[in-house]
Amino acid sequence: MAILAAVVFGAFFTLANCDGNVIVETTRGTVTGFKVDYGNDTSQLYYGQADVFLGIRYVQPPVGALRFAKPVPLTKFKEQPYDATQFGDACPQKGNARGYNMSEDCLVLNIYTPDALSVYKYSVMVFIHGGSLKDGLLGDFPTPGIVRNLVSRGVVVVALQYRIGLLGYFTTHSDEFPPNLGLMDQTEALKWIQQEIANFGGDPYRITLMGQSAGSSSVAALLLSPVSQNLFQQAIMESGSILTCFEGAMGFTKLSQNRAIQLCNFGEDQWDARNFTALKEDCLQDMDWHNFLEYEDSNIRGWMLVQDDYMLPATPRDLAKNRPNIPVIYGNCKDEWSGVDLALLAGGYNISTYNREYFEFIFAVYANYLGENEETVIGILESVYMPPGLADDDHVGWLKTMSDIFTSAGFTGFTAKEVEWYLENGNDQVYTYEFVFPTDIHRVYNVPGWKPVFHGAELDMVLMQDYFWEPLLKNGTLSPDDVAVANFMGRTWTNFAKYSTPLMDGSWTPTKTAQNFEYLEINVQQTMKTGFRTADKLVWNKVLPQIIGIWPPNVPDYNNGTVSL
């Protein structure tokens, strides 16, 4: 309580003393950043010092002739010195809630380091944002939380942007529109980091990737890809498997083909004829990017990673057989899906909407790939997840049931499967967790009688975004437990980055077998348990494959132009 009292009665707004510029020499030219100093009083909400470099381009801007092109390395900065004192533009999207400038010249990274000129080289954490591969930007993660909870514990943090939406994931599996451009961008950023991070005080041989949601799916993909898997040494994956964002894992969306029809009137016959030069030159190459966003509000699943012949040249289950056995943290929030419904309720949905009919309607929207098996699958899911005697007018009960089913379908069943792949390969350094702390940070709606642990709750404890934390501090509702759990997450994640083990006393032990499936339950008090998401594993990885087959199915090896960069 002492920490909270000091915070409440101290200065509310996050104030930093910017003591001047920091100049770094890189192989690409001189970079100018700045110092921040939030003080040393750990009883305050924010504290710590860092050298900060914002908006550094890591490849040539993907504009003009480079739109839809594979990323092109940037060997020299055009500007000398390079001004890295302002956030770069966000990539085009609908989710830019804080109003940052947007442009296609958005492939930038931020660096936060304890001391850019240090002779000692710090471990490096590379953060990849989420957003369903259609949203997300570095401006959503302000400097104070990163400095307070990560950098002040002795690590360098790098956060990067990558092409999202149609510009990053539209593909014809051809030279005109190569697949997985956003994933290629991330790979180029990792190459840049390997080459330059020592100039900012970081150790290029101690790099830990960290991603959340679609960012976690991206980290999982980078681990599986033969192109990128040797560019880092460890990984932290929060609330996202590659299967969460992989085309075919939950049916085929054919989103690229649909966009070609919607934006260019490029019909199915033309698509099948593969005249993609016309699609590019006559329509998409010069189209205003604002038009690309027209249909994103209805894009409920987001964009997808796809199997190709370069970055992801096989299905995830086959790529996993050759994945390096490196230390990883892998986990989820208890009620991932609830974040979707809490946002809907906050936006005006009535809780009386939630009943059996509504659940089965939403399930049909997401699971249309099940075809004639849909009713059978719904029956199995309701028998497993629906409480006995659940009345149709028990709206909170149906809200919870929906959350349990969709959390298992899109998150935890996939997470369990990926961890099992690691164990099958003999990886004895897999640390599994479930985040169950019901924080009020970033909670947009209060459900009577139920306090779900929604998607993204653990990330708010790691990066401590001030626009979520400070309102609770101001109105006196910030809990000491929030501060305690944030401290635990920051300490644990940085321990892992520095020492390859999350808790120095060894109390968080790796998952040893798929049968016991040991994991850490993260709450105000942390507890090692066995039996991670047992029902989800059984339903999605054992029972349903016998009915619907194994997803994603193998697909042809496309000749898609993704030759070596």
Automatic annotation (TrEMBL):
Residues making up the signal peptide according to the UniProt record: 1-18
Domain (Carboxylesterase type B) ranges: 23-537
EC numbers for this chain: 3.1.1.-
Enzymatic class: hydrolase
Xref: InterPro entries: AB_hydrolase_fold, CarbesteraseB, Carboxylesterase_B_AS, Type-B_Carboxylest/Lipase
GO molecular function: carboxylic ester hydrolase activity
PROSITE patterns in UniProt: CARBOXYLESTERASE_B_1
Origin: domain of life: Eukaryota
Keywords, comma-separated and alphabetical: Hydrolase, Serine esterase, Signal
Hydrolase keyword on record: yes
Family (UniProt): Belongs to the type-B carboxylesterase/lipase family.
Name of the featured protein: Carboxylic ester hydrolase
